Inverse folding.
């Protein structure tokens, strides 16, 4: 299941929160849009794992936290696998369109292994992607479903960019 | 895969085949107890020493292969224990064994691709079926918390700083995130929890009688039901 909706201006919000500007690919805390101060920011507990997967596959992230700064993670102990919000900047999307597939494939492959040994109806991943369009609009693409369905996201991202 | 492992896999499959015929509710519990003994002996006298040998040799693939087989046997043992516990009137223990069996079969599936040769998907379906057939729907407790300190189970370092990935096998062990310090945020009642062992065990009915959620027996009349 995919749901697409408008999202807040990420650059404006990072400035307000005194965070780093995510110039390429970044993870955003789950409550990024609602937090009033930097101290309130909370990542999903899966954020560290995604960072490692990207790092191990030479995918470079521009985090919103400064070097040495750590935002805490929240663990909701849900049976679903919930990702942090993944942000793709407009510049990164136009310069590296092929990397969208790689960045998402790394997660999709990991989830295929992660869900092994679970009944089919319990293999549910929730993934939120925020994309920055060239016209300054921001869209949030929410995915909920089996890991195989993540393969459809690059096409959906491209279609949303061209809308 | 080396010859040693191929030969071991044949013995493993014969053992599993021989023991699986007792994984049914109607089998006599003494046979099931004997089967647990047989599986435990195989695990402790054959499989674990071989796995240790592979770990000592730093043979990662073989160690993970054996982790998969080890977890499969552990799952079977827990399934048998569940059946026996139900027959002996301990439904709470039976539930815990079932969840341990499900967790072990998941480890077996995650540890190594050899699991594809063990019909694990069928086994997963069977355990889910037993969960629905043998136990009533339950209320589970889900805890939400802020992680303050998380350690990697493989290297003991801060999980964010090492390269190990949770859920992946490393030299015969599955990587886990160990939450060392945390701060409670919320406790909620859910139907589909991450941890099926966190559940309501007792309730008070409309007449004020305290009952066991699984057996329905009055708590005072059946103290052995309490874990």
């Amino acid at each position: 299941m995919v749901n697409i909706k408008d999202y807040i201006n990420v650059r404006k919000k990072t400035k307000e929160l005194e965070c780093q500007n995510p110039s390429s690919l970044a993870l955003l805390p789950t409550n990024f849009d609602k937090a009033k101060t930097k101290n309130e920011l909370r990542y999903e507990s899966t954020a560290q794992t995604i960072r490692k997967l990207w790092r191990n596959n030479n995918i470079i992230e521009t985090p919103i936290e400064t070097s040495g700064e750590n935002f805490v993670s929240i663990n909701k102990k849900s049976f679903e696998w919930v990702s942090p919000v993944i942000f793709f900047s407009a510049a990164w999307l136009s310069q590296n369109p092929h990397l969208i597939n790689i960045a998402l494939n790394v997660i999709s492959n990991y989830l295929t292994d992660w869900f092994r040994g679970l009944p089919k109806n319990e293999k549910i991943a929730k993934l939120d992607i925020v994309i920055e369009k060239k016209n300054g609009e921001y869209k949030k693409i929410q995915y909920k479903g089996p890991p195989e369905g993540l393969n459809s996201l690059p096409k959906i991202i491209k279609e949303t960019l061209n809308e | 895969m080396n010859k040693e492992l191929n030969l071991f896999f044949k013995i493993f499959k014969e053992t599993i085949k021989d023991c699986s015929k007792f994984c049914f509710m109607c089998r006599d519990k003494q046979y099931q107890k004997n089967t647990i003994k047989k599986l435990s002996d195989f695990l402790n006298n054959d499989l674990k020493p071989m796995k240790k040998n592979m770990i000592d040799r730093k043979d990662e693939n073989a160690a993970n292969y054996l982790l998969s087989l080890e977890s499969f046997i552990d799952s079977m043992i827990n399934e048998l224990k569940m059946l026996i516990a139900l027959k002996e009137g301990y439904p709470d223990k039976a539930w815990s064994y079932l969840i341990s069996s499900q967790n072990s079969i998941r480890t077996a599936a995650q540890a190594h691709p050899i699991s594809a040769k063990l019909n694990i998907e069928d086994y997963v379906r069977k355990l889910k079926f037993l969960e629905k057939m043998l136990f009533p729907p339950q209320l589970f407790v889900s805890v939400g918390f802020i992680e303050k300190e998380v350690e990697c189970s493989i290297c003991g370092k801060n999980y964010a700083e090492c390269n190990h990935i949770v859920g992946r096998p490393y030299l015969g062990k599955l990587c886990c995130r160990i939450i060392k310090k945390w701060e409670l945020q919320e406790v909620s009642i859910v139907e589909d929890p991450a941890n099926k062992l966190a559940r309501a065990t007792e309730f008070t009915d409309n007449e004020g009688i305290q009952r066991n959620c699984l057996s329905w027996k009055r708590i005072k009349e059946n103290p052995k039901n309490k874990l």
Summary: Chain A has one domain: 2-162. The radius of gyration of chain A is 15 Å. The first strand of chain A starts at residue 2 and ends at 6.
